[in-house]
Amino acid sequence: MSADSTRASIRAVASLAGVSPSTVSRALNSPELVNAETRRRVLECAERLGYQPNRAAQSLVLGRTRNVGLIVPDIANPFFAPFIKGVEAYFRDTEYAVFLADTDEDTATEVRLAEAMVERVDGLILCAPRMSGTRLRAIAAKTTVVLANRTSRAAPSILQDFQPGMDQAVAHVHALGHRRCAYLSGPANSWSNRRRRRFLGVACAERGIELVDLGPYEPRFTDGYRAADEVLAAGVSAVFAYNDLVALGVLSRVTARGVPVPNEPGGRGLSIVGFDDIPMASMTNPPLTTVAIPVDAVSRAAAATMHSMLDPGAPKAPPLPPAAELATRLLIRGTTGPV
Amino acid sequence: MSADSTRASIRAVASLAGVSPSTVSRALNSPELVNAETRRRVLECAERLGYQPNRAAQSLVLGRTRNVGLIVPDIANPFFAPFIKGVEAYFRDTEYAVFLADTDEDTATEVRLAEAMVERVDGLILCAPRMSGTRLRAIAAKTTVVLANRTSRAAPSILQDFQPGMDQAVAHVHALGHRRCAYLSGPANSWSNRRRRRFLGVACAERGIELVDLGPYEPRFTDGYRAADEVLAAGVSAVFAYNDLVALGVLSRVTARGVPVPNEPGGRGLSIVGFDDIPMASMTNPPLTTVAIPVDAVSRAAAATMHSMLDPGAPKAPPLPPAAELATRLLIRGTTGPV
DNA sequence: GACGAGTATGAAAACGTTTGCGGAACAGTG
DNA sequence: CACTGTTCCGCAAACGTTTTCATACTCGTC
């Protein structure tokens, strides 16, 4: 029921195999340095004793933990689930284990967690971190970090190219006849939010669409409720939400208020465009038109980058996927229609 | 950009403070053993050098890592998110860090991950593990384990009491006039599934409701699609799904096929009852009637149990919440109606 | 038959802590 | 003053590995 019964040490297998601990270590880590026959014997003895090298001792002498940390703002946000899974899947058949933590979208928690992790990992993957650039640099000084959805000179970052998706979305909405739209802003200190807003602004300006800013809102379903009423009050015919959760909140609330989605011939109604393409987005009624993010590519790229930074000679790890893979794109479904 | 620049060791602060390493260690860990003044000086020096004890060295000598592992079947299953958050929140202001891993609902992966974690943690919280009892015992022999949603003699388990919720659900459906219902089974080797099915069976038998078994299905939205068609073919007026994801899949597919939810006066239609009360459940149209699980209580109890097993003298950790807290209960929303 | 080049192995140091043991200083007691 | 007890602190061992260095042995080669 507990971790007692003194696990077999390297010395135990050494004496069982009639060799020195050094030889056991070599047999395990650098096979080419030991005689094939003794190696076989050592391995057999190790197997017999159920020998597992003590991680702490290895870490101590090697100066590395074989752990990597992964910090995301919110596990419950379905956008991050595939990201997490991607990273975990990458490291699964690696000697690394991954520490996952969730900051609850809170910057202070994020910093605390990052500090706590630094001591236990070789590298830290920060997904959409909100902390200040200074903090980020401080962390990056202490360990290897890779950023996703956030730029910084302190560490390499994996980014999506928001432009194509945003451009397609605006073109789509413009083609449907919308001329006055709203943007539901996400957290103010979020890099994603600023980028999305920027490209949206550019695309709208190019096409002569008037853009109303609302928010900021937390990227949660319930914040979409709040947003919905403001959207309706703002007198726009279409709305771009910071992300799908907010969009779905809007959809739910707007529908409940009897406003048709998408717009109806009579001029009433609202078109909604989300962002992320979370699984739920295709399950609603009507299904959500949204800008899809190549999250698998992003997570794999982040993991691979980390891996190759930690083990420069790693066998896996294509350095970086071609930029094209990271492009966003519009998925037209049921929540957008002609005005 | 990397983890170099040789962090300050305990020796460095010792020599700066003009004491021996032992004294520094004691000043940090057992304040009562050192003179107040020297302690102050040591602490100040440690602070000045930004000293952080080397975790690996501590682990090596203490034989404990101050890490706990948490393994769940699927992060993307929104039922687990609150569970994870609960555990993480509990350990946040503790000296423990938590390793989270996701098995992708795969037993082999689960075993692999558990094995990998055993070397890196002091204890393992297994949420709804699918592995065999034998395996479970093997793991429990190597480290401290706490189970959630799974019984075993090998380790303490935190369970929900499915009975009240199931009973309420059946009573509700019975009151609405349903007499022939289906159960959409979850994974065959899932303890939750067996329990849910059992109590459901009993409650239905008591009230003279005929119960049709369908499945098993994976607990995913898309499996709900598949299930929906079988449900419709089975000629039942109400269905109990293994969990909310499946229920929502059914809802989506059934609605798409033009079958009203809930039942209409004419005799057509279907009533749907889910299980878990995931956030999405209240967001659909109509919102899902479901059996809510006290997931916060379960996760906190699991974490607290682990904590008190690891540090018997822990200051926090109320041993176990009263059993009542762990009872499930029915949430009547929009997907159930009179037949 | 000595020598150089490999090849295979062991001894020991090192990694950074914690902690048992003992010693020094000091105060209190007879 | 001799003693006992306390308080504070340093020495050194120990934790389980990896790796450097040295050594012993085996082969060919001149």
TrEMBL record, chains A, B:
Q: Which domain of life is it from?
A: Bacteria
Provide the GO MF annotations for this entry. DNA-binding transcription factor activity; transcription cis-regulatory region binding
> Which SMART domains has this protein been placed in?
HTH_LACI (SM00354)
One Pfam entry for this protein is LacI
Q: Which Gene3D superfamilies match?
A: 3.40.50.2300, lambda repressor-like DNA-binding domains
Which part of the chain is the HTH lacI-type domain? 8-62
What PROSITE patterns has UniProt attached to this entry? HTH_LACI_2
Q: Which InterPro entries match?
A: HTH_LacI, LacI/GalR-like_sensor, Lambda_DNA-bd_dom_sf, Peripla_BP_I
Keywords carried by this UniProt record: DNA-binding, Transcription, Transcription regulation
Could you tell me what this protein is called? DNA-binding LacI/PurR family transcriptional regulator
Write down the species.
Actinomadura livida
Identify the taxonomic lineage of the organism of origin. Bacteria, Bacillati, Actinomycetota, Actinomycetes, Streptosporangiales
